[in-house]
């Protein structure tokens, strides 16, 4: 069977707890059912397939990426299955759980000072690009500027959501990191019905909300709250502001609190950016102004078992086993 048959087609589950709390219909797109347990398996597959089709890398070659962990893991798993290798540059903020998973998947990892973009010599992006350019048969997938990032979600994630909701979705809310998910899903949904609300979530201090409003960078760019996987101090090429209506900002403390509260209420551990999406409901519910007949889809890109040390202080060990998915199981 083809690898593509195992990536995507993830379930959409109504969340009774959130639906009751916000007096509307809230659904969770559970991306942790992908082989690498994250939404990033989708662009990883598309970027690898595109590079191979265009002969950018020969058999046995090396795929290189700058990643907070999930895209890198997807690339490592798929590359290994196809007979290629992977080298992933991660920042210091990458969780220990993700680093361990990358190594388990066969990736060579390098830890960098930050992920501040190609203009910073110490960033994951600059070092990944430099490494690929200076080594034979190595290809930098470059998720922040690779059109396949958006295309993967336009071609797979969005049509799945549209079908699963019977075309009755009214809101889509997702964390914004590279921008590929919200741009691809947003474009597809807006093409089906322009009145569907497409909302992003990022940490305080990230610049994408400012860019969406003004289409320029802020005068002062400072470090943003460390919510792993989302937030940027540069505008990725894979962020298409034309298909995003608004970006809400949340902070680290409330995201961590919400993750614990959601787990206590539902016995489901959310990933870091998933918790940020739930936190946005908490903080901005009045502004969101949901009605009883709305159908709100929240994208949960990965699972909380990758953030036990960060979100749950290591206190969750054997819990939530019912929703765990076996990794690397093609």
From TrEMBL:
One of its GO terms (molecular function) is transferase activity, transferring alkyl or aryl (other than methyl) groups. SUPFAM superfamilies: Tryptophan synthase beta subunit-like PLP-dependent enzymes (SSF53686). GO terms for biological process: cysteine biosynthetic process from serine. Its cofactor is pyridoxal 5'-phosphate. The keyword Nucleotide-binding does not apply. Keywords: Pyridoxal phosphate. Transmembrane segments: none annotated. InterPro entries: Cys_Synth/Cystath_Beta-Synth (IPR050214), P-phosphate_BS (IPR001216), TrpB-like_PALP (IPR001926), TrpB-like_PALP_sf (IPR036052). It holds the Pfam family PALP. Residues 3-302 form the Tryptophan synthase beta chain-like PALP domain. Belongs to the cysteine synthase/cystathionine beta-synthase family. This is Cystathionine beta-synthase.
